């Protein structure tokens, strides 16, 4: 009996309850009733015991069962510890309402809780419930300035209450509060944790009780009887029905098309095509806000302009520290946008950079100091009051981008231009060249001959004595090909004011040292007639004139690259295409579903950052249109790329094979042989991919032993089906969608989603300012074509090639706007959660073996980080180590806050 008491935690009850005689009652979450007897539950799965279990008395029992005769139910007390997160800063209204809430506590306007058992009451046929309890000392603790405040409440339950599986919360105050967690103490099974992490709205705004489930995961068909109805109700409450205008306090997840980017009420120049849906250009769905239509177009949704917030479900909004960081970034962006705008109107001489020193001064002197804006002028401008202190603190001075940190002229070198194709901010486009000359897939009747202008003579002298065919066979030729994505838009792009672009192809040769060398660039324009010269080829220079031509050609390639990077690889593939999976997860997977618990950290902030992007970045006349070559056609270009998007090829190994960069080979790590061995993005990425896949495999196999369990999981199947059929409705009939019928299918799908949200996004996002903050290295747009000998501009070019070069780059206004934006986008916030980390790491799930597996995953991520650091110091790896060569750290898992050019957050959080 002594051993049984130790196992069942009777000593806890002796200390915590004056209601019961501990010698007459046994309570434990690991026990269940059978034939009027109480048995130890040995668990439903044959899992290896955790370290904790191996050392516990339970392990000593082995397979024996302890039989205890239950006695009459008695009442006892349990305690709830409720952790509420305070706001760091409150406005006056919030402070007054907080004091009012503290006062009205005394008349019963309090926070009330109710415990709900996993068991049904045989008499009422409803879940067993505790009495209603209220939080103590709210009024006393309301003025505490700490980040977190712990409140307590006491429940009275029967000894046959069973396991607490849910808790309801009613907020009778006037304003919301952020409920971080609840822990129930006093049950013999030990503390029961409820991870909440949610805003609880006042009852006056949302009358229904909030439901929170314990951290014990359940597949749908294993849901305890007492929780079945609550599980279904909570999901029902989260789903929208396609109607109604959403309030900022709502927690409703629903779908809509991209019909909110334009503002036709401002005029035809601000109208934009709808993306997604029948009769529109195909595109993923976004989170529905339900705003009323515009006055001039009933199919277009009216806009909410900054600084007013746009709707995303309340718990998906930035937490306070993240919002503060982002607000500071936005303030910097406003100032960087506004000051150049003012100067552009004050002095026409500042439209173009005159030379490299003008750009350097943005980092050394700062924009205000350079442009000489005096305090008297500053006071007359309608700027925020904080401007003067910002000016005094030199915060308008740009940080020196990392590309300049080791070698100020590295960007000019051909080897650095090529290195950035595999270790820069957009390392996911390069492909192995399999056919020479390359061939377009565009319709020749519309876009002219599919043949390239590239000939063998253009590259033959740069192949180390090989013929072209020998170089192809030896896997030594690679291509970055933007011909087909840009050419259909060039007529319209080049008709825009201040835009002149080509559709480019760049051929690279892989040297014996493992580095790439650009050996030719093809520049294409739309064919204007049967005999028009629409294509030209530029090759590495042999003289001074050729050198400037080559630099201009590389700048046009980088401009093409910047546009595809931002609109396709970054925005479309990691932001927009993930949003439907996240919406469907909230709508179809219960918070107690193990797959929801796995995905939860990888969904954080995606909906909020996407909403902010629609409001300020990708909207009509927004930052992206202003800064990138395609201008008002940016999102149409993104939508054109979506037609060729394939979820089944978004995983790293599948993508590398598709691009011909890797071939399956079981003798190599991860089963792939890289054809460019020193390919930093791929080499580091495969390590992280393998770690994610191993973690997901352990997790999935823990809950799904066979295909039947996967197929019969109605929530899981509903999530995946809705992600495709509703979230990606325009591609729903594609044959390439993976099936979800086996645990292996599920592992592949989840690994891909987690990879895209974490490592893939990090590789594409956090290098934007370190590489693009120096505009000549990576101009986001070009304003002039390259003149040939028959052009009137050719004489101007010969007379002052540097001046012509800078007149082709973005203007001062365009450059400083762009730099401010990518500086903000490249910044890690203070509350960033990196891969291998989780909030509440020991209590996010109640499954001890999964906690242990997660710590194993975390340890592997730390090991990978050390290996990446070692590679970056290996002089044999010339694409990441050498004189003037930046180390490749974009996939190094951890980072501090700020623009660090490293760190892999769990989610698309910026």
Question: What does this 3D model show about the protein?
Answer:
With 910 residues, the protein is an alpha+beta fold. Helix content is 38%, strand content 13%. It is built from 34 helices and 19 strands. The longest helix is centred in the middle third of the chain and has 33 residues, at 544-576.
Quick summary:
One of its GO terms (molecular function) is linoleate 13S-lipoxygenase activity. The chain is an alpha+beta fold.
Shape category: elongated
Number of helices: 34
Structural class: alpha+beta
Radius of gyration: 31 Å
Q: Mean of the pLDDT scores?
A: 87
Distance between the termini: 57 Å
Q: Helix fraction?
A: 25-40%
Pathway: Lipid metabolism; oxylipin biosynthesis
EC number: 1.13.11.-
Keywords: Chloroplast, Dioxygenase, Fatty acid biosynthesis, Fatty acid metabolism, Iron, Lipid biosynthesis, Lipid metabolism, Metal-binding, Oxidoreductase, Oxylipin biosynthesis, Plastid, Transit peptide
Subunit structure: Monomer.
């Amino acid at each position: 009996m002594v051993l049984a008491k130790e196992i069942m935690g009777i000593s806890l009850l002796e200390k915590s309850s004056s209601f019961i005689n501990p010698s007459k009652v046994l309570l434990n979450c690991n026990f269940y009733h059978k034939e009027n007897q109480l048995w130890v539950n040995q668990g439903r799965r044959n899992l290896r015991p955790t370290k904790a279990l191996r050392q516990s008395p339970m392990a000593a029992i082995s397979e024996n069962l302890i039989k205890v005769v239950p006695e009459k139910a008695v009442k006892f007390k349990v305690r709830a510890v409720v952790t509420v997160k305070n706001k760091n800063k409150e406005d006056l209204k919030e402070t007054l309402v907080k004091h009012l809430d503290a006062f009205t506590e005394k008349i019963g306007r309090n926070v009330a809780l109710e415990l709900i058992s996993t068991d049904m009451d045989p008499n009422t046929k409803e879940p067993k419930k505790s009495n209603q309890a209220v939080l103590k000392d709210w009024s006393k603790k309301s003025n505490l300035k700490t980040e977190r405040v712990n409140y307590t409440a006491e429940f009275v339950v029967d000894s046959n209450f069973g396991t607490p599986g849910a808790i309801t919360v009613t907020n009778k105050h006037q304003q919301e509060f952020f409920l971080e967690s609840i822990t129930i103490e006093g049950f013999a099974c030990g503390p029961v944790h409820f991870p909440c992490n949610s805003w609880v709205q006042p009852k006056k705004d949302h009358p229904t009780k909030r439901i929170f489930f314990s951290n014990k995961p359940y597949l749908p068909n294993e849901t305890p009887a007492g929780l079945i109805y609550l599980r279904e109700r909570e999901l029902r409450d989260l789903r929208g029905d396609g109607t109604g205008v959403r309030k900022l306090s709502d927690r409703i997840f629903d779908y809509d098309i991209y019909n909110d980017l334009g503002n036709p009420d401002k005029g035809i120049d601000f109208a934009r095509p709808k993306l997604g849906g029948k009769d529109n250009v195909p595109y993923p769905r976004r989170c529905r806000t339900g705003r009323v239509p515009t006055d001039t177009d009933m199919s277009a949704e009216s806009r909410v302009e900054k600084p007013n917030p746009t709707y995303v479900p309340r718990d998906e909004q930035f937490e306070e520290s993240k919002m503060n960081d982002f607000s500071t970034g936005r303030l910097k962006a406003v100032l960087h946008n506004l000051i150049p705008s003012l100067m552009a109107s004050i002095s026409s001489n500042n439209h173009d950079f005159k030379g490299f020193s003008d750009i350097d001064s943005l980092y050394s002197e700062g924009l205000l100091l350079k442009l000489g804006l005096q305090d008297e002028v500053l006071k007359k401008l309608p700027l925020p009051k904080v401007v003067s202190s910002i000016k005094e603190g030199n915060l308008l001075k740009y940080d020196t981008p990392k590309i300049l940190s080791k070698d100020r002229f590295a960007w000019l070198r051909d080897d650095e231009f090529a290195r950035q194709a595999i270790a820069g901010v957009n390392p996911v486009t390069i492909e192995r060249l399999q056919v020479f000359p390359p061939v377009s897939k565009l319709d020749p009747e519309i876009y002219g001959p599919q043949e390239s202008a590239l000939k063998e003579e253009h590259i033959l002298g740069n192949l180390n004595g090989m013929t072209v065919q020998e170089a192809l066979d030896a896997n030594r030729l690679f291509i970055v090909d933007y011909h087909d994505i840009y050419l259909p838009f060039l007529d319209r792009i080049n008709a825009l004011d201040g835009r002149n672009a080509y559709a480019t192809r760049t051929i690279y040769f892989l040297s014996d040292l493992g580095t790439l060398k650009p050996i030719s660039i093809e520049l294409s324009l739309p064919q204007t007639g049967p005999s028009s010269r629409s294509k030209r080829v530029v090759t590495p220079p042999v003289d001074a004139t050729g050198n400037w031509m080559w630099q201009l050609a590389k700048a046009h390639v980088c401009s093409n690259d910047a546009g595809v990077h931002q609109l396709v690889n970054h925005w479309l593939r990691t932001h927009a295409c993930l949003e439907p999976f996240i919406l469907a997860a909230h709508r179809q997977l219960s918070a107690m579903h193990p797959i929801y618990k796995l995905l939860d950290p990888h969904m954080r902030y995606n909906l909020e950052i996407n909403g902010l992007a629609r409001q300020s970045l990708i909207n009509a006349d927004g930052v992206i249109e202003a800064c990138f070559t395609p201008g008002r056609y940016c999102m149409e270009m993104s939508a054109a790329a979506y037609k060729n998007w394939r979820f089944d090829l978004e995983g790293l190994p599948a993508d590398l094979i598709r691009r011909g960069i890797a071939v399956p080979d079981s003798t190599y790590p991860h089963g792939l042989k890289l054809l460019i061995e020193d390919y930093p993005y791929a080499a580091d990425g495969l390590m992280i991919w393998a770690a994610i896949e191993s973690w997901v495999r352990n997790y999935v196999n823990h809950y799904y032993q066979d295909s039947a369990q996967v197929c019969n999981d109605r929530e899981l199947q509903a999530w995946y089906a809705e992600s495709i059929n509703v979230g990606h409705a325009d591609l729903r009939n594609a044959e390439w969608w993976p099936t979800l019928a086996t645990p292996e299918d599920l592992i592949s799908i989840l690994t891909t989603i987690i990879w895209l949200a974490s490592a893939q996004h990090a590789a594409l996002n956090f290098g934007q300012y370190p590489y693009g903050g120096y505009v000549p290295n990576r101009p986001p747009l070009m304003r002039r074509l390259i003149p040939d000998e028959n052009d009137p501009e050719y004489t101007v070019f010969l007379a002052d090639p540097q001046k012509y070069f800078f007149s082709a780059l973005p203007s001062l206004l365009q450059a400083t706007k762009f730099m401010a934006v990518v500086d903000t986008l490249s910044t890690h916030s203070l509350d960033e959660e990196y891969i291998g980390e989780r909030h509440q790491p020991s209590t996010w799930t109640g499954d001890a073996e999964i906690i242990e597996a997660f710590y194993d995953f975390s340890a592997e991520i730390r090991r990978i980080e050390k290996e990446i650091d070692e590679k970056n110091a290996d002089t044999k790896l010339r694409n990441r180590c050498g004189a003037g060569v930046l180390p490749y750290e974009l996939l190094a898992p951890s980072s501090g806050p700020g623009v660090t050019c490293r760190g892999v957050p769990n989610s698309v959080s910026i």
